[in-house]
Write a structure and sequence with these properties.
The protein is of the alpha/beta class and 212 residues long. The protein has 2 domains: 3-137, Response regulator (Rossmann fold, 3-Layer(aba) Sandwich), CATH 3.40.50; 142-208, Arc Repressor Mutant, subunit A (Orthogonal Bundle). It has helices at 12-23, 37-47, 63-71, 88-97, 109-120, 128-138, 141-144, 154-164, 169-176, 180-194, 199-208; strands at residues 3-8, 28-34, 51-54, 78-83, 101-104, 125-126. Strand 5, helix 5 (109-120) and strand 6 (125-126) form a beta-alpha-beta unit. Helix 3 (63-71) packs parallel to helix 4 (88-97), helix 8 (154-164) packs across helix 11 (199-208) and helix 9 (169-176) crosses helix 10 (180-194).
Length: 212
């Protein structure tokens, strides 16, 4: 079977080079390209590919939000993130958004092709640099609570854990070395994402999930 691919990257030379490289593989067909996250959503809606190879940092809409929007559709394609960024926030935000693979730019053609075939078959795959980080994260108690609130960022989950512990905004700001306004913004985002109206309801949800 031929796997139909859309390549998404805002750097034209890299995007075209990647597309040309993948076109050389017998069972892969490049059906479209996009240079922004917003355009990626439109192209996928038009072409219904099997797999999207997605960059993270792009204009209009970043790769994480684009992935999240794609995964809301009933016949969502598998998404492989191909990026320069290997920080924890990027990796786990992509996973929470629904990405099935995460590779770093600089991966060899063989590794990229293997990842495409794997996610097309319903598997999840990560580059060697990312796999060890994912394993270490889920080997900790905090890692296991990640699945409870996949819509939250790592920082929002950290703030929620502290809220659930009974700490006030000023204490949280001091301990995290961030401004009180930033804490308030995080708390407001948490309320919205958890669909709760106040701190007490957020604490209840958090403690039921093992936080605090």
């Amino acid at each position: 079977m031929t796997t139909r691919i859309v390549v998404v990257d805002d750097h034209p030379a890299y995007r075209r080079g990647l597309a040309q490289m993948l076109e050389e593989v017998e069972d892969i067909e490049i059906v479209g390209e996009a240079d922004t996250g917003l355009r990626a959503v439109e192209v996928v809606a038009e072409l219904a590919p099997d797999v999207v190879v997605m960059d993270l940092r792009m204009p209009d809409l970043d790769g994480i939000e684009a992935t999240r929007r794609l995964q809301r559709e009933p016949d969502a394609p598998a998404v492989i993130v191909l990026t320069m960024f290997e920080d924890d926030d990027s990796v786990f935000a992509a996973m929470r958004a629904g990405a099935r693979g995460y590779l770093l730019k600089g991966a060899e053609q063989e590794e990229i092709v293997r990842a495409i075939r794997a996610v097309a078959a319903g598997e999840a795959i990560f580059g060697p640099e990312i796999a060890s980080r994912v394993i270490a994260h889920f080997a900790t108690s905090s890692g296991w609570t990640t699945a409870a609130f996949p819509q939250l960022t790592e920082r929002e989950r950290e703030v929620l854990d502290m809220v659930a512990s009974g700490k006030g905004n000023a204490t949280i700001a001091h301990e995290l070395t961030i401004s009180l306004k930033t804490v308030r913004n995080h708390v407001s985002n948490i309320y919205t994402k958890l669909q709760v109206s106040d701190r007490a309801a957020a604490i209840i949800k958090a403690r039921e999930a093992g936080l605090g």
